[in-house]
Structures are given as C-alpha cells and as structure tokens.
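[[Sequence with tokens]]
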Amino acid sequence: MKTPHMTTKETAEYIGVHPDTLRKYVHQENLPVLRFPGRRKWMFRKDLVDQWVEKRSQPEIYINGQLEKETVHQEYGKIRVLQP
C-alpha cells in the first residue's frame, strides 16, 4: 500500500495553516518534508505530518523554568503550564 503524499498547498489546507506558515514549520520546527534532487517541489507524507502534529500537541509542564518530561502524563493530564 502506498503512503499518500501531499503537495505544500494540500498539506497547508490539511493542517489549517497558510502555505507560508507551513514553510516556516519546515525550516524552524522540523516538519518532515521530502525534496528530491533537481526539483523544487516539496512533498509531504501524510503519516509523518500526522506524527509531527501529534508530537506538537502534547502538553508541556514547566516548573521554575525547567521542562518536566516525566510528570506530563502522570500527574497533570493535558494541562499546559506556561511561564514567561
């Protein structure tokens, strides 16, 4: 079974952002993209995009400015605590 591939425009629509924002995600936030030598066109695998979105949607707990990775799911559930 083939993995569905999406263009930049299709991927932006899929996750609900502008294509420029999608490009920012690729360059600054490690959104996985396939780019073949000699071609400017980007292709996105749906399964990798879904994994990236899932990872980014996980809650993060900061206590005194330190990220607490172990307690995220055990004690706090889906609470995200933001500190300046």
